[in-house]
Design brief:
Blueprint: E1 11-12, H1 15-24, E2 32-36, H2 42-48, E3 53-58, H3 61-70, E4 79-83, H4 91-98, E5 102-107, H5 113-122, E6 127-135, H6 136-142, H7 153-159, E7 164-170, E8 175-176, E9 183-189, H8 194-197, H9 201-211, H10 219-225, H11 230-240, H12 253-262
Parallel strand pairs: 2-3, 2-5, 3-4, 5-6
Antiparallel strand pairs: 1-8, 6-9, 7-9
Length: 269
């Protein structure tokens, strides 16, 4: 089918990669899988061969119709095609209907990757694990560790909802049409850390956003720019055992949590 560049359509045509994605989700024999952006159905078929049920969420009406014809018409009742924007998809309702937490797979459109990751994070309570293909640079940021060039707000945000690990990278020729970038598959296991670190989800992530506001600035300067009183910032850094000249990208999540606690109330003073 003709692709629609505005929808970020680059269809995976590497058969080995399709199999690796499907198998990397683990045992799916009793599980419901939500596939984001199934495209022409290459990964959908591989998932359906392994899973109890696959719900393919496709925004493009033409592709959704194609999937219904090519996959569902074969009489495979394990596949359901939902024509919908995944950002509007109700993961909680799908989980309730399945009676279990969901697995997720998808070749994410580059132009809304961050929004989809945030949507999944917001749905973490009903998700078990995800196998996602994104632009290589995004995967580098998602899985980055403290002190690395790629570690930042996206790293902390994703990893607060569970560990993420890169699995493999694919060249442009693995897709049709070939994108201008390499793509990386990463696995995300949903195991939120808010309770473990005793931080509040609603206020901790905005605090982290302020801490990473200007990458070239020190953590102290970013917090002062966010209207925290200088004396409060200095005292909190000292109490947390963080160097006064440290930058946010040098701090592991545990240190950011200690600072959040030391500030008493993670809001401007």
């Amino acid at each position: 089918m003709a692709t629609k560049p505005r929808l970020g359509q680059n269809f995976l045509i590497d058969a080995q990669a399709v199999e690796r994605i499907a198998t990397s989700l683990g045992d799916l024999s009793q599980r419901t899988v939500i596939e984001i952006g199934p495209g022409e159905g290459a990964i959908t078929s591989a998932l359906a061969a392994r899973a109890a049920k696959v719900i393919a969420v496709e925004l493009d009406p033409e592709l959704a119709a194609h999937l219904r014809t090519s996959l569902m018409s074969k009489g495979d009742e394990r596949i359901t095609v939902v024509e919908q924007d995944v950002l509007q998809f109700d993961f909680a309702a799908a989980s309730a209907a399945a009676g279990q937490r969901l697995a997720v797979a998808g070749n994410l459109p580059y132009y809304i990757t961050s929004q989809i990751l945030l949507k999944l994070a917001a749905s973490h309570a009903v998700l078990d694990r995800a196998m996602l293909m994104v632009q290589r640079e995004v995967a580098d940021r998602v899985t980055a560790q403290p002190g690395s060039r790629d570690y930042g707000l996206l790293s902390v945000t994703v990893q607060m909802y569970g560990p993420a690990e890169k699995l493999f990278t694919l060249p442009p020729e693995a897709f049709s049409p070939p994108p201008e970038v390499h793509s990386t598959v990463f696995r995300w296991r949903f195991a939120p850390r808010f309770e473990e670190l005793a931080v509040d989800e609603v206020t901790f992530l905005p605090f982290v956003r302020r801490a990473f506001a200007q990458k070239r600035k020190t953590l102290a300067n970013n917090l002062r720019a966010a209207q925290f009183a200088p004396a409060v910032v200095s005292a909190a850094l000292k109490q947390s055992g963080i160097d006064a000249q440290a930058r946010a990208e040098a701090l592991p999540i545990e240190a950011l949590a200690r600072l959040w606690h030391a500030l008493k109330a993670p809001s401007p003073v």
